[in-house]
What we know:
CATH class: Alpha Beta
Order of helices and strands: HEHHHEEEEHHEEH
Oligomer: single chain
CATH topology: Lambda Exonuclease, Chain A
Amino acid sequence: MKLDFQRQFEEYLISQESLEPRKVGSYGVTYLSRPCLLGVYRLYTEKHPLQVEKLKLFAVGDALHLGIQEAVKRFSDLTTPIFEGRYSVKDAEGFEIVGKPDVVAYLKLNLVDSPIQCLHPVVVEIKTVNPWCFRMVKRNGVLEHHATQLQGYLHLVGSQNGFIVYIKQTDGSSLEYRFARDVEAWNTLLNRAKTLHEALLSKKTPQPNPCWFCSYCEFKGDCKHVLRKKPKA
């Protein structure tokens, strides 16, 4: 008797993955935070290649995320989350920006000169990373697209403060960074959404931005702009 777990696991992940183009007019914070909009544009205009190994890594990371989320909710100074799920905001030009933070918890704070407590939302983004990425973050600080992603969530939720927590996959070591809401960062994200939306409507591809993220792009196999050299950590 053989369980044949590898085959069944891969078949399950493939069955859960949609390769169809995304819906034009609805743009996720995660995609808008990517360094290169050309890859995001292609996700909205083409069927993307299936990357089974990437799906497996994400599945393991998601499982770890669930455990970490529960730990944050149970053992931190934050109160139990009131609402978790999808947040969105609609722009005047007709598109929406959407996002689903890892944890939205509410911190009880006393009003100035008053015994009354009010609830302030705090966003916690959890990043499970390999040792190479962990070393790079420890040396150079938070990755720019992760900081941009958190800023997007802060504005969608209406929070003034948030955290990015990096967890090293091999031993559970962590790095914690706190951020305040930044209007300029939100405007940058909003402008990227406008650029993407206009490109999709006009069917004109946005400018590529070859960088380290090319190694993780769904279209690295056939992109003539791909940067294949990985930076040192």
